[in-house]
Amino acid sequence: MALRGPALRLLRALLGHTCQQSRSQSVAVLGAPFSRGQKRRGVEHGPKVIRDAGLIDRLSGLDYSVHDFGDLNFHYPEKDEPYMDVKSPRTVGGANKKLSTAVSRAVGAGHTLVMLGGDHSLGLGSAAGHAQQCPDLCLIWVDAHPDLNTPLTSPSGNLHGQPVAFMLKELQNKVPDLPGFSWAKPFLSCRDLVYIGLRDVDPGEYQIMKDLGIQYFTMRDIDRLGIQRVMEVTLDHLMARKQRPIHLSFDIDAFDPLLAPATGTPVNGGLTYREGMYLTEEIHNTGLLSVMDLVEVNPVLGASDEAVQATASLAVDVIASSLGQTREGYVLPSESK
Question: What GO terms in the biological process aspect are recorded for it (predicted)?
Answer without folding.
Answer: L-arginine catabolic process to proline via ornithine; urea cycle
